[in-house]
């Protein structure tokens, strides 16, 4: 079958209410602005902005916020055929502090994890190149079972799987369960993206880079990308080896929310263009920098592919 879909993003769609004041606790934040949110949602939107055919597999409520979600996705040219609107659960929302570091958040989860197997049919998988999800999406059933089964099927069909290990104990209190589920997903040899913050939360203590890479390689992932904020990025690949790339300079950070998703979109985009890992990380960092300089999503009015200058 012709691979008409570049990337399937399966997981959470929700509304981010991001605080208006910078570096203020949620306790002291007075005003919030509404944004389309959810890590796989951000990747799907970013990918579409880059000219890729992206499908979002997700569930929202049959409510005003759900209508807003679908409208925004369509406006960004994301394929919405696999979005389900629940009549029984409202759209999930998260309140987020605006921060130049790691933001604080309060989640109100309802519809986002109600993802059913019927939303990921075999013919959709067969028509795609990459299957991407998140730790957040795997934290609850039925989404967990749906995504794990689909990832295994995707691997058997020759798709490259992918995961952002955006672990948070607030979303997934049982760390040992999380590690078992991650072991199952990593058996599909996904591209793995994780941050130092993610690792600290998952292991409940600081771990060395060697420990982190050995741990996830041993679970089955050949390619692991560890983001370190202002300290750059380290990539470890079983065949390529390990290399470090320093962070690109930024004059002013306006909003960190979604920066990791922008980075990972750039990574997957570059891999679809068959770039080597050094070029891939450079492209990924450029997209993250663009996001860090803008509140909410990537800016309108520019051709992002041209900005990245990928010659692809």
Plain-language structure description:
- The longest helix has 16 residues, at 277-292.
- The protein is an alpha/beta fold and 312 residues long.
- The chain starts with a strand and ends with a helix.
- The chain contains ten helices and 13 strands.
- The chain is globular, with a radius of gyration of 18 Å.
- A hairpin with a 3-residue loop joins strand 12 (233-237) and strand 13.
Low-confidence segments = none
Taken as a percent bin, the fraction of beta residues is 15-25%
Quaternary class: single chain
Tell me how many strands there are. 13
Q: H/E order of the elements?
A: EEEHEHEEEHEHEHEHHEEEHHH
**Percentage of residues assigned to helices:** 25-40%
How many angstroms separate the termini? 23 Å
| Average pLDDT metric | 92
Radius of gyration of CA atoms, rounded to a whole number: 18 Å
What general form does the structure show? globular
Strand order of the largest sheet: 5-4-1-8-9-10-11-12-13
* Separate helix tally: 10
Q: Give me the secondary-structure category.
A: alpha/beta
The largest sheet is: 9 strands, mixed
Kindly summarize this structure in a few lines.
By secondary structure, the chain is of the alpha/beta class.
SSE layout and pairing:
Blueprint: E1 5-10, E2 14-22, E3 32-37, H1 39-49, E4 54-61, H2 64-75, E5 83-86, E6 93-98, E7 105-108, H3 122-126, E8 128-134, H4 143-156, E9 160-164, H5 175-186, E10 191-195, H6 196-203, H7 209-218, E11 223-227, E12 233-237, E13 241-245, H8 259-272, H9 277-292, H10 304-308
């Amino acid at each position: 079958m012709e691979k008409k879909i570049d990337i399937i993003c399966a997981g959470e769609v929700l509304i981010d209410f991001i605080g208006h004041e910078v570096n203020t606790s949620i306790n002291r934040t007075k005003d919030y602005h509404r944004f389309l949110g959810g890590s796989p949602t951000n990747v799907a939107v970013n990918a579409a902005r880059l000219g890729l055919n992206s499908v979002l597999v997700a569930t929202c409520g049959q409510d005003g916020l759900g209508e807003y979600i679908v409208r925004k996705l369509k406006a960004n040219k994301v394929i919405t055929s696999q979005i389900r609107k629940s009549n029984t659960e409202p759209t999930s929302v998260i309140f987020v502090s605006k921060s130049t570091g790691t933001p604080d958040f309060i989640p109100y989860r309802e519809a986002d994890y109600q993802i059913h197997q019927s939303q990921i049919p075999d013919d959709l998988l067969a028509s795609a190149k990459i299957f991407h999800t998140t730790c957040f999406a795997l934290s609850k059933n039925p989404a967990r079972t749906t995504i794990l089964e689909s990832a295994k099927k995707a691997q058997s069909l020759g798709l490259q799987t992918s995961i952002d290990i955006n672990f948070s104990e607030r979303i997934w209190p049982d760390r040992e369960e999380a590690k078992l589920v991650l072991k199952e997903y990593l058996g599909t040899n996904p591209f793995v993206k994780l941050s130092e913050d993610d690792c600290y939360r998952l292991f409940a203590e600081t771990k060395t880079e060697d420990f982190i890479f050995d741990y996830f390689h041993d679970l089955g992932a050949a390619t692991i990308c560890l983001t370190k904020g202002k300290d750059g990025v380290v990539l470890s690949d079983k065949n390529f080896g390990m290399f470090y790339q320093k962070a690109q300079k930024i004059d002013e950070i306006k909003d960190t929310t979604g920066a990791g998703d922008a980075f990972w979109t750039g990574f997957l985009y570059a891999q679809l263009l068959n770039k080597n890992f050094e070029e891939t990380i450079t492209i990924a960092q450029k997209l993250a920098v663009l996001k860090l300089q803008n509140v909410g999503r990537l800016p309108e009015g520019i051709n992002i592919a041209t900005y990245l200058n990928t010659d692809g």
